Amino acid sequence: MDEVIVVDWGTTSFRAWLVASGEVKDEIPSGTGMRDTAREDFPRYCGAQLARWRGGAEPPPVYMAGMVGAPQGWQAAPQPVLPVGLDDLAARVVAAEGLPDAWIVPGCRVQKSDAEIDVMRGEEVQIFGALDLLKRDDALFCLPGTHSKWAQVRGRKLVHFTTSMTGEVYEAMLGHTILAKTADRAAPFDEAAFRKGLAQAASADGLLHQMFAARCRTLYGDMKPELTPSFLSGILIGAEVKAMRGLYPEAKEVLLCGSDALRGPYGIALAAAGFAATAVSAKAASLAGIGAIAARHRARAA
């Protein structure tokens, strides 16, 4: 397979890359997310965005991952139960209705007990892509984001993961609670305030009280409004990392796969918890992972 189009179409953005032999030849950096596109228009919109790459006699195939495969997305893609490997994902790729040779990569889920289930959609391609990039068979991953994931891989099989709503709670707290009245959301990241948040998260007071501390310290303490976002970030990321340290008490290294903006704060929090973090670009991991799944899927169909 020479060329393939990789698409990351989420709730708020559309991004696509034309990849040949593992190299990005062209890209569409941003477009309209699914939230702002009528569901019946998904095939037309995607086809129009990719038209400049698919005008030849043999247009390259399209492989999509992420929320595009959710029940509210373009086409529901399965979420097989762990353990899952690359071949398992390639075997469950589904056709995207309305666009020729377009495919949606499945997610996965973990059944922890009869009552506890966790789901993943999109991060699995980053995990397997990072393994390829770093030539690893076993790893513990931290994938920060709106819904942060910690995932365990053994023998190139994803065997366990846990989701934390860290990013979403951060946005909700700064946008829809009493903190919104005083916090300066436009302020740059402040490492000192972030570290104070980490220290607060390490206390025994509980997360709900710790978050209110941001309000109290603004009123009567040392917290200026421009420091509140970094302080709150430290509390939430600190709580996440503290919980994961409890789940993985013997772990020494974590593969940190995320955006540039998140890798910095998470790197500080991981180091404070005794983890050695190895950073991996989320974009590079996604492209490598979807590319590997696409190659296996094409080989199965040949």
UniProtKB/TrEMBL annotation:
Coiled coil: none
GO process terms (BP): D-galactonate catabolic process
Cross-referenced InterPro entries: DGOK, DGOK_C, DGOK_N
A molecular function (GO) term: 2-dehydro-3-deoxygalactonokinase activity
CDD domains per the UniProt record, alphabetical: ASKHA_NBD_KDGal-kinase
Keyword Iron-sulfur: no
Superkingdom in the source lineage: Bacteria
Keywords: Kinase, Transferase
Keyword Chaperone: no
Listed name of the protein: 2-dehydro-3-deoxygalactonokinase
Species for this entry: uncultured Alphaproteobacteria bacterium
